[in-house]
Amino acid sequence: MSLTFVKKGFCILLAAAFAFSMSVLPVPSAFADEDPNAILDAAQARLDEISAEYDALSSEVNALQSQIDELADQVLTAQEEMLNGRAALGNTVLYEYRGGSISTMLSILMGSTDISELTRNMNYVNQIMDHQAEEIEVQKELKERFTKVSTELTGQKDEQDQKLEELATKREEATKVVEEASQRVEENNARIEQMRKQADQFIWGGVQEDALIQNDDPGQNTIPEEDKTTSGGTPPSGGFVPEDVSAYRTVVSSAYGGWSDKSTPNPGTTANGSVCDDNSMGIAIPLSWSDRSRYYGRTAEIIWNGRVVYATVNDCGNMDKYGCEIDLQPGVWKALDPNCTTCAQWGHRTVQYRIL
Description:
The protein has 356 residues and is α+β, with helices and mostly antiparallel strands. It has helices at residues 2-24, 36-99, 101-110, 115-184, 190-204, 330-336, 343-346, and strands at 249-255, 268-269, 275-276, 282-286, 299-304, 307-317, 326-328, 349-355. Helix 2 runs parallel beside helix 5 and helix 4 runs antiparallel to helix 5.
């Protein structure tokens, strides 16, 4: 009995000693058996793959930007021709209304003294009506051309936005690869620092993205009910209004320039040397934007009340002090709202826009 008791006591002491040794000795790392060089080699290989994918995406984004710039020039020209045609057709209709041309033509026909004179007068009236029909048909063609180019431009910009999202994903993936390798290689390794620098270049290298006008609040991209009269299809201006405006900024706009703005000369000169007058199709961006000059010459796509209008960024101002992000020149706000005749009448209105 005593020997059995001694054996049990010895076993208890041995177990306690083993437990104590386990509590004070270091626990082997989960990555202790891994080869640090192998980990870093695998991470570097994946980082190089991501880098190649990033460069390829950057090339696609830059190529799309070239196409967007070309289409932007075309859409501005098509828009100008359409607006000029609309104005000319409107003047013709107004002249006929005020001049009573319809009643005049009827008087000419009714005043014919014989068949021969009636035939001549009818030919004259037909020529006038044919000319008016031609003007209407020309305006219809101008509108269709503008709509076609506008739709193509919107599609190209949407594709570029998708590529930019893919670039952001590649940057996040590169950072994740480096951090995971860093956690597995516990020592301060020079190769880790080099890979971090390579991953950081994804943020600053490649294409230049519009950091200033990235919308961080998805709720801002909802069209207010009071400004939403059409969704998709062909708006009054003839441009294509996309149903998805998530890529657009929803902001408050103001108006300036032209005869109705007594605070500016007419004509005036914009920040990049362009002319601002009663028909100029430009917009101003906030003076507070530190890199605003790189937006000059870019085309802005603006949506209001079911209309799409394209304008050139060519000026800057302090409109952000009054809660506005863009300031519209007369040609722009008149195209968005043909019933608006002064800057004060435009006031401050919510619009959707993006810089192409």
